[in-house]
Amino acid sequence: MMNAEEKKAMTQMVHGKAFVFGDNVDTDQIYPSKYVEYTEIEDIRKYAMSGSAMPDLVKRFHPGDIIVAGRNFGCGSSREHAVMTLKGIGVGAILAESFGRIFFRNAINLGLPVITCKGIGTFFQNGDTADVDLITGTITNETAGTSVQAEPLSDYIMDILQHGGIKPLIRARLDKGAL
User: Fold this and answer.
1) Distance between CA atoms of 27 and 30, rounded to whole angstroms?
2) Fold exhibited by the domain 12-176
3) Across all residues in the chain, what is the average pLDDT?
């Protein structure tokens, strides 16, 4: 568990352009099942959000940009490809009113920050500039000059994210003899 000094020393900020989606964006919209045969990240990332209302996202997206959505983002199947494709294009964070349970856990386990925030689906417009403090849960719409408070990530989740996912965290602990 992180103490107050460690938390203060590691301010974890995400900054990028917001890409806004609605409610119930399922894993087939995030990564259509017809591409599930691909296993290499270079192939997988080409199809990020290709089944969604914004199928050209990959062409418009820059590493660090942020996905914003309404309720139930990532509902549907349990395949990790949905998270892998978003991480592969460099998503800085996903902000949503709620997440599919398995998608949320897959995201954390693969090192992709996901933040739950009531009303976030209407807080941004496409192209707004966003700042997200993963530790405090403060989300700022720089374009509008407004902020909202989300549920902060737990110390345990931050530890996983800072290691790049659950596997790298376990490897690091094994290397230190902490497991």
Assistant:
1) 5
2) Aconitase; domain 4 (3.20.19)
3) 92
